[in-house]
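Hi P.,

Sorry for the delay on this. The queue was packed all week, but I finally got your sequence through. Input first:
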Amino acid sequence: MLKKTFTIFMIMLVLLASAGPAAAESPVITASAGILMDAASGQVYYAKKCDTRREPASLTKIMTAVLAIEYGRMGDVVTVSRRAASISMGQDIGLRSGDRLTLENLVKAALICSANDSTVAIAEHIAGSEEEFIHMMNAKALLVGAYNTRFANTNGYHHPNHYTTARDLALITRYALGIGKFRELVGTKETTMRWEDGREKVIRNTNGLLRDGSFQGVYGVKTGTTPRAGGCLITAAGRGERNLITVVLHSRSRYQDTVRLLDYGFNHVVRVSLCRAAEEMDRPQVAGGVLPEVPAVTVEQVEVLLAEEQLAGIKKEIKLDAPLHAPVRRGQRLGQAIYKLEGNELARVELVSAQDVPKPGVLARIYNALDF
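Then the structure:
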């Protein structure tokens, strides 16, 4: 298989978007780790130590809620155990042993006001014990591609074996946002929790960006804070057809960091044409044909969204199939063009023959065989 690699420089790219603001430098954030990801494609537009292990604090509860929604019935009535009621460190809703309330109310408490006691009650109801539920959390993390994540509890308390990365949290959140009930709850600014005995409690979302509406398009997701994890925040925001996910971990100013990332994503990500339809990419040799080579062209136009600063880093790799022998038919597959950014694949497009290359006729073969 033949293989050629080229670097595509920014001047060679065709920007299809209308002229926008001048290219900006990458945002500067106070967070120790962060990421800006496209919610639809998973494309990363900005990253800072996004694969470095960090403590997630209450961002853990995203996974707890996902499993509760997927494996439980929101209308189920849960009886709170003594163990769940004993959880009092950090934020809680004051659950008491023997309390009865629906699973949906417990999930509300976990996602909206970040109640630590609710997560243990959820785990025991879904899996029979918190320990078994944690096994489910770790298995789910692997299924969504969060390979650098390990959970040791359901609420985010410090533990040496409880860690994740900014990239993994973005992947988990991207998955979670595809669940209607999850998206509904993380976008709730205020609601009322209800116990089966008639008690009620108004809870308010801990996410200041969502609660005060200070940034257009924010629709979730979750805050987290512990002394070791620092200020953490995952945010989802959408404008038009573009939906973004940001993660900031161990931040001194989590809301300001998030706004900087979202501003960058909405204002400095552009649509780029990597290739046109029928664009010639190579001319592979043809053995035994009337022509010595044939144009290899793309079958379609390929477009992607990228941050302006990423454009110069795109690389194109041409992979041709086995050596060609005549006859070659027009439209015959010849290989692929693969586009990459920082080693990660952006897109690929098939390459086909732009014309027929037949074998020579009988007279031509006789003529070529003569030795003058």
